[in-house]
Amino acid sequence: MAPHAALRTISSHAALLELADGDPFVRWGIPDPLYGRVLANDGAVAVERIGRRGRGLWVFPHSGGGAAQIRALLEQLRGRVAELGTAGISLPQEYADQLAETFDLGSGGEWDWMWTTQDPPSIPQEEALVVLDDSADAAELAALATAHSPTGEGDPGTGRTRLWLGIRSAGGELLAAGAMQSLENGVPHLAGIVTHTDHRGLGLGRAVTAGLTRAALAEHGVCTLGMYSANPSARAIYTALGYRTAYAWHSRTLA
Predict the structure, then answer these.
(1) What is the pLDDT at residue 35?
(2) Can you tell me the distance from the alpha carbon of 120 to that of 213, in angstroms, rounded to the nearest whole number?
(3) How far apart are CA 154 and CA 156, in angstroms?
(4) Most buried among 44, 93, 109, 172, by the most CB within 10 A?
C-alpha cells in the first residue's frame, strides 16, 4: 500500500470553514481563533479540542471524503496522539468501525450536536417561565436533576450557566428547568434541561427549551445543544422547535 501523503496544517478558522464548506459545527462549534492544531488530508480533518474532559480530537470528513479518508487520517494520527496529549476522539457515528480498527478504545457515548437560527414556534407554557438564580436556586436545581435526569449537565452553582429558566407549580415546586451556557467561542449552548418525572408529557420541557432558544437567538442569532442519541422523545421536541443535527457523534476515550 502506498504511503499516505503528509498531513497539512490548517492555520485559521476561516480556512477550516472554507475547507468544510461552511459546515455549521465548524462555524459555531469550533472556537475562532483556533486554540489547537488542525490537521487535514485530502478528505478528512482532525481538530484539536481542549475541554473539561481534557484534550481530544474532532475528526470528520470534508470535500466529499468518506471512510477511506477517515481511516487514513486516523492511521496517521495514531503515532501522534502522545505528542498531542489526546485523551479521546469524536467522529461521526458512521465511522465508528474505522476508529475501533485503528485505536484501542475506552468508554464513551453517542450524542448529537444540534443547532438552530430560527425562532421556535410559540409554546403556551412559555408564559409560566421564571428566571432562576444559579447560586440561590442551585440546591433545588441540583435536586431536580439528580432525581429526574442524573445525566444532565447544567452544573448549577458553578457559574457556568448564563441563564436558568424554569416552571414552578402553584405551590412553588420546581417542575422543569434548563440552562443556557456558552461554548468556548461565546455561542449559546443549552444544557441541563430536565422535567420532573410526574409532570412529563405536558410540554414543560418544550417550553423551557423554547424560552432558552428564544433568548439565545435574541442575543447571538444562533443556539446550539447536545443530546444523547438514544433519546427519540427529546429529538422530536428539538426538531419541532427548529433544531437540526450537524453531527451524530461517536465519542470514545483512548485506552
Answers:
(1) 87
(2) 7
(3) 6
(4) 44
Angle made by CA atoms 181, 114, 74, in degrees to the nearest 5: 105
> Average pLDDT over the chain, rounded to whole?
95
Q: Is 12 helix (H, G, I), strand (E, B) or coil?
A: coil
Is the distance from CB of 237 to CB of 205 less than 8 angstroms? yes
Per-residue pLDDT band at 151 (split at 50, 70, 90):
confident
pLDDT tens for residues 3-24? 556 899 999 999 999 999 999 9
In angstroms, the CA 20 to CA 116 distance is: 18
> Do residues 188 and 222 make contact, with C-beta atoms less than 8 angstroms apart?
yes
Would you kindly state where each structural domain of the chain is located, as residue ranges? Answer: 8-110, 118-221
- Which architecture, in CATH terms, is 118-221? 3-Layer(aba) Sandwich (3.40)
Cell of 240: 419541532
On the question of a common fold for 8-110 and 118-221, the answer reads yes
- Give domain 8-110's CATH number out of 2.60.40, 1.10.357, 3.40.630, 3.10.20: 3.40.630
What percent of the chain is helix, strand and coil (3-state, nearest 5)?
Answer: 35, 30, 35
